[in-house]
């Protein structure tokens, strides 16, 4: 892809013809309540009820070469669309073919990058902007670009992951950053976060966002994004002196358990090296519990501690805790002076006295002889969807020549954003989240579009260990696949749940436990009722077919009774 800012603007006549052709299919009729009008060479958001107007949509460059103007036009269009167009009409603005082309182009670049990318920025006027979690807050990303400036020949960007989840515009954030990556592959670096996985995109709303915006094409688009997530690098080293990643440190591969333990036991964990990190196979569906690729889980989930040493997280949770001694050892071993990680916002730090509360977007966590460790969070007024909004500021870090190891931090307030319906339950909470089972990870895409299990949000979750119960009921059901194996399915949520809402006098954690159980019982009851109807109808049809075929002499019913059961 070229870096030169040359754009070939599409003619308005061609756009209208393409728009008219796209409306020939009744399934693809455009929402004309909110349209985009092309006027004086600018994209102007305008409300209209005239059926003769068509929505302008983004066109992939015919020569497959995106330009600076094309990326800027995408950002401007997304901003207008977020304010004037219903989410269900987003697919009419950004067609599947554009998502396909852009994710393929970006993935082809990302897959060639090592697990830890080297950011070479030794020019006299070079500077690097480091960005933390964004969580689908597109308007705040635009605000950050406005404050810090967009990528350029002298300005680099390193993003520490968590682009999606808990916000309404994860698709817009992803597409804009991927477009910048394709345009300037050596000026912008996109690292992986713990939310860039199948399970957590399902749990925190991104999968629902994709289905809402792309409808029947949602499964295809969602899988394209998942494939792109698999090739995101895990860390960066900037100017040979600054290390950035999403979560933090990782164990040595020699400390990795060979199999998932049934019971968590305290064992010696040694600090890993960048050489060991380079050997991790980062293409994955979920975060592994065992083997050498457990380093992948560590680097996305680990957190700093004031207590010296490196130890596993308590309970059945992901990642490690590491102390100031580990920070000193890692910096000294790799001749580094600064670490900037992300992963923790004001929700994770609430009630903690050891570290900063992240209300200004960053915190100095370790200050050791060889350097410093900061946590950086770039989603202000977080979370967009949740029980509590923290009214926090986001922040970004600027590293500048000649001393890249002396960062400057800039806090910024939340940008004005449109009001939208949430894609995730307000009950969803990530703090100290238990690690999901392999069945939970595998089952998140087990349903087709007509069987979306949780259209209103993610699956209810409650930690029954709060009540002293280690084996609480699950929404996962293991069933035979008819081929001698098994498959794990999720119980679909019931449209109506008896017993809810609960009386206000019930206190936590019993309130959440009762809500979880009522919803699960209601879901199972709904499945039984629905299954009886389906099975009754299906047996009627099968019986008629067997009777007809038997009368025609094609089948012997007595032989069929002892044969294998037809799966259909």
UniProtKB/TrEMBL annotation:
Residues 94-416 form the Serine/threonine specific protein phosphatases domain. Its cofactor is Mn(2+). Keywords: Manganese, Metal-binding. GO terms for molecular function: hydrolase activity; metal ion binding. Pfam families: Metallophos. This is Serine/threonine-protein phosphatase 7 isoform X6. It comes from Arachis duranensis (Wild peanut).
């Amino acid at each position: 892809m070229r870096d030169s800012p040359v754009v070939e603007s599409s003619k308005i006549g061609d756009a209208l013809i393409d728009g008219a052709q796209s409306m020939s299919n009744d399934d693809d009729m455009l929402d004309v309540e909110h349209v985009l009008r092309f006027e004086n060479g600018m994209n102007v958001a305008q409300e209209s009820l005239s059926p003769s107007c068509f929505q302008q949509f983004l066109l992939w460059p015919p020569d497959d070469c995106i330009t600076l103007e094309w990326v800027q036009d995408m950002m401007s269009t997304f901003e207008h669309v977020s304010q004037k167009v219903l989410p269900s009409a987003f697919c009419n603005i950004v067609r599947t073919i554009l998502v396909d082309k852009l994710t393929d182009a970006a993935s082809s670049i990302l897959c060639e990058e090592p697990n830890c990318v080297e950011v070479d920025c030794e020019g006299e006027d070079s500077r690097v902007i480091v960005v933390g979690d964004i969580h689908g807050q597109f308007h705040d990303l635009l605000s950050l670009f406005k404050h810090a400036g967009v990528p350029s020949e002298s300005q680099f960007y390193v993003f520490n992951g968590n682009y999606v989840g808990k916000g309404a515009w994860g698709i817009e954030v992803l597409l804009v950053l991927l477009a910048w990556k394709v345009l300037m592959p050596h000026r912008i670096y996109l690292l992986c976060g713990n939310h860039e996985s199948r399970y957590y995109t399902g749990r925190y709303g991104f999968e629902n966002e994709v289905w809402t915006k792309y409808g029947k094409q949602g499964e295809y688009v969602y899988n394209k994004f998942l494939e792109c997530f698999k090739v995101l690098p895990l860390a960066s080293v900037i100017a040979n002196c600054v290390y950035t990643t999403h979560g933090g440190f990782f164990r040595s591969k020699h400390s990795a358990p060979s199999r998932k333990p049934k019971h968590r036991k305290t064992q010696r964990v040694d600090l890993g090296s960048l050489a060991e990190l380079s050997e991790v196979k980062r293409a994955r569906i979920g975060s592994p519990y065992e083997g050498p690729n457990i380093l992948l889980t560590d680097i996305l989930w680990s957190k700093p501690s004031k207590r010296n040493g490196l130890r596993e997280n308590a309970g059945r949770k992901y990642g490690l805790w590491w102390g100031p001694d580990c920070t000193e050892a890692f910096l000294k071993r790799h001749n580094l002076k600064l670490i900037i990680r992300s992963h923790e916002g004001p929700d994770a730090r609430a009630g903690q006295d050891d570290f900063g509360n992240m209300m200004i977007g960053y915190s100095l966590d370790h200050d050791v002889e060889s350097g410093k460790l900061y946590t950086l969070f770039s989603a202000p007024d977080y979370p967009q969807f949740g029980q509590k909004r923290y009214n926090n500021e986001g922040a970004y870090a600027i590293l500048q020549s000649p001393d890249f190891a002396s960062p400057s931090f800039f806090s910024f307030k939340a940008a004005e954003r449109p009001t939208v319906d949430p894609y995730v339950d307000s009950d969803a909470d990530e703090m100290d989240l238990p690690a999901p089972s392999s069945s939970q990870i595998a089952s998140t895409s087990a349903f087709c579009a007509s069987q979306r299990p949780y259209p209103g949000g993610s699956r209810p979750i409650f930690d029954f260990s709060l009540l002293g119960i280690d084996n609480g009921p699950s929404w996962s059901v293991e069933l035979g696949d008819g081929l001698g194996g098994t498959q794990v399915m999720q119980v679909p949520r019931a449209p109506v749940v008896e017993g809810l809402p609960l009386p206000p006098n019930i206190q936590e954690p019993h309130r959440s436990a009762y809500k979880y159980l009522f919803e699960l019982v209601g879901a199972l009851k709904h499945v039984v009722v629905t299954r009886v109807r389906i099975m009754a109808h299906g047996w009627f049809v099968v019986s008629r077919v067997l009777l007809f075929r038997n009368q025609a002499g094609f089948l012997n019913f007595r032989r069929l009774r002892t044969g294998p059961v037809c799966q259909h």
